[in-house]
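pls design
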Protein backbone atom coordinates (compact mmCIF):
# COMPACT_ATOMS: atom_id res chain seq x y z
CA UNK A 1 0.00 0.00 0.00
CA UNK A 2 1.41 3.38 -1.02
CA UNK A 3 1.49 5.88 1.86
CA UNK A 4 0.10 9.42 1.63
CA UNK A 5 3.64 10.86 1.82
CA UNK A 6 4.82 8.61 -1.02
CA UNK A 7 1.82 9.64 -3.13
CA UNK A 8 2.64 13.29 -2.44
CA UNK A 9 6.29 12.84 -3.48
CA UNK A 10 5.28 10.94 -6.63
CA UNK A 11 2.78 13.61 -7.59
CA UNK A 12 5.28 16.38 -6.86
CA UNK A 13 7.76 14.78 -9.27
CA UNK A 14 5.37 14.96 -12.26
CA UNK A 15 6.62 17.57 -14.72
CA UNK A 16 4.50 20.13 -16.57
CA UNK A 17 5.24 18.29 -19.83
CA UNK A 18 3.99 15.03 -18.29
CA UNK A 19 0.88 16.85 -17.10
CA UNK A 20 0.19 18.25 -20.56
CA UNK A 21 0.71 14.82 -22.14
CA UNK A 22 -1.66 13.23 -19.61
CA UNK A 23 -4.20 16.00 -20.22
CA UNK A 24 -3.97 15.44 -23.98
CA UNK A 25 -4.64 11.73 -23.49
CA UNK A 26 -7.54 12.55 -21.17
CA UNK A 27 -8.99 15.08 -23.65
CA UNK A 28 -8.75 12.54 -26.48
CA UNK A 29 -10.45 9.97 -24.26
CA UNK A 30 -13.24 12.39 -23.38
CA UNK A 31 -13.75 13.26 -27.05
CA UNK A 32 -14.00 9.57 -27.88
CA UNK A 33 -16.48 9.08 -25.04
CA UNK A 34 -18.72 11.87 -26.38
CA UNK A 35 -18.62 10.48 -29.92
CA UNK A 36 -19.11 6.82 -29.07
CA UNK A 37 -21.28 7.13 -25.93
CA UNK A 38 -18.86 5.42 -23.54
CA UNK A 39 -16.71 6.21 -20.51
CA UNK A 40 -13.66 4.64 -18.91
CA UNK A 41 -13.16 4.15 -15.18
CA UNK A 42 -10.34 2.47 -13.28
CA UNK A 43 -11.23 0.09 -10.42
CA UNK A 44 -8.69 -1.46 -8.05
CA UNK A 45 -8.47 -5.28 -8.33
CA UNK A 46 -10.40 -5.15 -11.61
CA UNK A 47 -8.56 -2.76 -13.93
CA UNK A 48 -9.90 -0.37 -16.56
CA UNK A 49 -13.59 -0.71 -17.35
CA UNK A 50 -15.53 0.75 -20.25
CA UNK A 51 -19.18 1.67 -19.78
CA UNK A 52 -21.05 1.75 -23.09
CA UNK A 53 -24.40 3.36 -23.76
CA UNK A 54 -27.04 0.80 -24.82
CA UNK A 55 -28.12 0.77 -28.44
CA UNK A 56 -31.59 1.95 -29.49
CA UNK A 57 -33.28 -1.46 -29.24
CA UNK A 58 -31.84 -2.16 -25.79
CA UNK A 59 -32.69 1.38 -24.60
CA UNK A 60 -36.32 0.98 -25.66
CA UNK A 61 -36.54 -2.33 -23.80
CA UNK A 62 -35.03 -0.70 -20.72
CA UNK A 63 -37.50 2.20 -20.90
CA UNK A 64 -40.37 -0.29 -21.14
CA UNK A 65 -39.21 -2.21 -18.06
CA UNK A 66 -38.70 1.02 -16.08
CA UNK A 67 -42.15 2.36 -17.05
CA UNK A 68 -43.79 -0.89 -16.00
CA UNK A 69 -41.95 -0.77 -12.68
CA UNK A 70 -42.95 2.85 -11.97
CA UNK A 71 -46.58 2.20 -12.85
CA UNK A 72 -46.71 -0.83 -10.57
CA UNK A 73 -45.14 1.08 -7.65
CA UNK A 74 -47.39 4.11 -8.02
CA UNK A 75 -50.45 1.84 -8.24
CA UNK A 76 -49.66 -0.12 -5.07
CA UNK A 77 -47.87 2.74 -3.23
CA UNK A 78 -44.97 0.48 -2.29
CA UNK A 79 -42.19 3.10 -2.77
CA UNK A 80 -41.71 6.85 -2.31
CA UNK A 81 -40.39 9.19 -5.00
CA UNK A 82 -37.03 10.98 -4.55
CA UNK A 83 -38.82 14.25 -3.76
CA UNK A 84 -40.98 12.55 -1.12
CA UNK A 85 -37.90 10.96 0.48
CA UNK A 86 -35.99 14.25 0.31
CA UNK A 87 -38.83 15.98 2.18
CA UNK A 88 -38.79 13.23 4.81
CA UNK A 89 -35.02 13.19 5.27
CA UNK A 90 -34.83 16.99 5.57
CA UNK A 91 -37.11 16.95 8.60
CA UNK A 92 -35.28 17.66 11.88
CA UNK A 93 -34.88 14.69 14.19
CA UNK A 94 -37.23 14.90 17.17
CA UNK A 95 -37.23 12.99 20.43
CA UNK A 96 -39.50 13.14 23.48
CA UNK A 97 -38.03 14.47 26.71
CA UNK A 98 -40.33 14.43 29.73
CA UNK A 99 -43.29 14.15 27.38
CA UNK A 100 -42.27 17.10 25.20
CA UNK A 101 -40.82 16.94 21.67
CA UNK A 102 -37.26 18.29 21.36
CA UNK A 103 -35.38 18.88 18.10
CA UNK A 104 -31.91 17.26 18.30
CA UNK A 105 -30.71 17.31 14.70
CA UNK A 106 -30.96 18.83 11.22
CA UNK A 107 -32.38 15.85 9.40
CA UNK A 108 -30.70 12.91 7.72
CA UNK A 109 -30.11 14.71 4.41
CA UNK A 110 -29.65 18.48 4.57
CA UNK A 111 -29.57 21.21 1.91
CA UNK A 112 -25.90 21.70 2.82
CA UNK A 113 -25.10 18.06 2.02
CA UNK A 114 -26.98 18.35 -1.28
CA UNK A 115 -24.96 21.46 -2.14
CA UNK A 116 -21.62 19.89 -1.17
CA UNK A 117 -22.31 16.76 -3.22
CA UNK A 118 -22.96 18.88 -6.29
CA UNK A 119 -20.10 21.40 -5.90
CA UNK A 120 -17.25 19.39 -4.37
CA UNK A 121 -15.96 18.17 -7.77
CA UNK A 122 -15.48 21.81 -8.85
CA UNK A 123 -13.61 22.60 -5.62
CA UNK A 124 -11.36 19.57 -6.10
CA UNK A 125 -10.54 20.66 -9.65
CA UNK A 126 -9.62 24.15 -8.40
CA UNK A 127 -7.42 22.67 -5.66
CA UNK A 128 -5.73 20.41 -8.21
CA UNK A 129 -4.90 23.44 -10.35
CA UNK A 130 -3.54 25.18 -7.24
CA UNK A 131 -1.37 22.15 -6.46
CA UNK A 132 -0.01 22.15 -10.03
CA UNK A 133 1.00 25.80 -9.67
CA UNK A 134 2.89 25.07 -6.43
CA UNK A 135 4.58 22.08 -8.06
CA UNK A 136 5.80 24.14 -11.03
CA UNK A 137 7.36 26.74 -8.72
CA UNK A 138 8.97 24.01 -6.60
CA UNK A 139 10.46 22.25 -9.62
CA UNK A 140 11.77 25.56 -10.99
CA UNK A 141 13.54 26.36 -7.70
CA UNK A 142 14.95 22.84 -7.37
CA UNK A 143 16.37 23.01 -10.89
CA UNK A 144 18.72 25.83 -9.92
CA UNK A 145 22.36 24.90 -9.32
CA UNK A 146 22.60 26.94 -6.15
CA UNK A 147 19.75 28.04 -3.90
CA UNK A 148 20.12 31.09 -1.72
CA UNK A 149 18.93 31.16 1.87
CA UNK A 150 15.95 33.27 0.85
CA UNK A 151 15.08 30.88 -1.98
CA UNK A 152 15.36 27.93 0.43
CA UNK A 153 12.86 29.61 2.74
CA UNK A 154 10.56 30.16 -0.24
CA UNK A 155 11.00 26.51 -1.27
CA UNK A 156 10.13 25.31 2.24
CA UNK A 157 7.03 27.50 2.25
CA UNK A 158 5.94 26.21 -1.16
CA UNK A 159 6.50 22.60 -0.05
CA UNK A 160 4.31 23.18 3.01
CA UNK A 161 1.58 24.81 0.92
CA UNK A 162 1.72 22.02 -1.67
CA UNK A 163 1.52 19.35 1.06
CA UNK A 164 -1.47 21.11 2.68
CA UNK A 165 -3.26 21.41 -0.68
CA UNK A 166 -2.52 17.77 -1.52
CA UNK A 167 -3.91 16.64 1.85
CA UNK A 168 -7.00 18.81 1.33
CA UNK A 169 -7.62 17.21 -2.06
CA UNK A 170 -7.34 13.72 -0.58
CA UNK A 171 -9.65 14.63 2.30
CA UNK A 172 -12.17 16.27 -0.04
CA UNK A 173 -12.24 13.18 -2.28
CA UNK A 174 -12.91 10.99 0.75
CA UNK A 175 -15.71 13.27 2.01
CA UNK A 176 -17.31 13.36 -1.43
CA UNK A 177 -17.22 9.57 -1.65
CA UNK A 178 -18.82 9.35 1.81
CA UNK A 179 -21.58 11.76 0.77
CA UNK A 180 -22.22 9.73 -2.38
CA UNK A 181 -22.48 6.56 -0.31
CA UNK A 182 -24.91 8.26 2.09
CA UNK A 183 -27.07 9.55 -0.75
CA UNK A 184 -27.22 6.10 -2.31
CA UNK A 185 -28.11 4.56 1.06
CA UNK A 186 -30.93 7.05 1.70
CA UNK A 187 -32.41 7.27 -1.78
CA UNK A 188 -31.71 3.85 -3.29
CA UNK A 189 -35.21 2.69 -2.39
CA UNK A 190 -36.93 5.53 -4.28
CA UNK A 191 -39.13 4.79 -7.28
CA UNK A 192 -36.68 6.53 -9.63
CA UNK A 193 -33.58 4.71 -8.37
CA UNK A 194 -35.25 1.33 -8.40
CA UNK A 195 -36.66 1.94 -11.89
CA UNK A 196 -33.15 2.84 -13.05
CA UNK A 197 -31.84 -0.35 -11.45
CA UNK A 198 -34.31 -2.32 -13.60
CA UNK A 199 -32.52 -0.83 -16.60
CA UNK A 200 -29.08 -1.42 -15.09
CA UNK A 201 -29.82 -5.12 -14.56
CA UNK A 202 -30.75 -5.40 -18.23
CA UNK A 203 -27.85 -3.31 -19.59
CA UNK A 204 -24.91 -4.34 -17.37
CA UNK A 205 -24.02 -7.73 -18.96
CA UNK A 206 -23.90 -6.09 -22.40
CA UNK A 207 -22.62 -2.58 -21.59
CA UNK A 208 -20.02 -3.03 -18.80
CA UNK A 209 -16.77 -4.25 -20.34
CA UNK A 210 -13.19 -4.74 -19.22
CA UNK A 211 -10.13 -3.67 -21.18
CA UNK A 212 -7.85 -6.60 -22.00
CA UNK A 213 -4.79 -7.08 -24.20
CA UNK A 214 -7.15 -8.40 -26.90
CA UNK A 215 -9.63 -5.52 -26.66
CA UNK A 216 -12.91 -5.32 -24.74
CA UNK A 217 -14.65 -8.24 -23.07
CA UNK A 218 -17.92 -8.31 -21.04
CA UNK A 219 -17.19 -8.16 -17.30
CA UNK A 220 -20.19 -10.38 -16.48
CA UNK A 221 -21.82 -13.05 -18.62
CA UNK A 222 -25.35 -12.52 -17.22
CA UNK A 223 -27.47 -10.92 -14.48
CA UNK A 224 -27.01 -13.85 -12.13
CA UNK A 225 -23.22 -13.38 -12.09
CA UNK A 226 -23.16 -9.70 -11.08
CA UNK A 227 -26.15 -9.92 -8.73
CA UNK A 228 -24.34 -12.63 -6.77
CA UNK A 229 -21.07 -10.69 -6.81
CA UNK A 230 -19.11 -9.06 -3.99
CA UNK A 231 -18.66 -5.45 -2.85
CA UNK A 232 -16.65 -4.60 -5.95
CA UNK A 233 -19.59 -5.65 -8.13
CA UNK A 234 -21.87 -3.38 -6.11
CA UNK A 235 -19.44 -0.47 -6.58
CA UNK A 236 -19.27 -1.06 -10.34
CA UNK A 237 -23.05 -1.26 -10.60
CA UNK A 238 -23.31 1.98 -8.63
CA UNK A 239 -20.87 3.71 -10.98
CA UNK A 240 -22.69 2.33 -14.01
CA UNK A 241 -25.93 3.75 -12.57
CA UNK A 242 -24.21 7.16 -12.32
CA UNK A 243 -23.06 6.78 -15.94
CA UNK A 244 -26.65 6.12 -16.95
CA UNK A 245 -27.61 9.41 -15.25
CA UNK A 246 -24.99 11.29 -17.30
CA UNK A 247 -22.29 11.65 -14.62
CA UNK A 248 -18.55 11.68 -15.34
CA UNK A 249 -17.78 8.35 -13.64
CA UNK A 250 -14.01 8.62 -14.17
CA UNK A 251 -14.00 11.11 -11.30
CA UNK A 252 -15.36 8.48 -8.92
CA UNK A 253 -13.04 5.63 -9.85
CA UNK A 254 -9.91 4.54 -8.00
CA UNK A 255 -6.48 6.03 -8.65
CA UNK A 256 -3.73 3.81 -10.09
CA UNK A 257 -0.57 3.68 -7.98
CA UNK A 258 1.82 6.54 -8.67
CA UNK A 259 -0.95 8.93 -9.64
CA UNK A 260 -3.26 11.21 -7.67
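designed seq:
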Amino acid sequence: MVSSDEKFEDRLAVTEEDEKANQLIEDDTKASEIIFGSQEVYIDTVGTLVFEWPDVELSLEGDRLAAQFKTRCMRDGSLFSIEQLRAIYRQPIKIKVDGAEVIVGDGQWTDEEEYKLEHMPDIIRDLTTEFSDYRSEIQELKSETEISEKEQEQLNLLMNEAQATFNEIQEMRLKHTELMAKQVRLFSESIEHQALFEKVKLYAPLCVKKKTEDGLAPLWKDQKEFLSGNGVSLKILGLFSLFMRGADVSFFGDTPEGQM
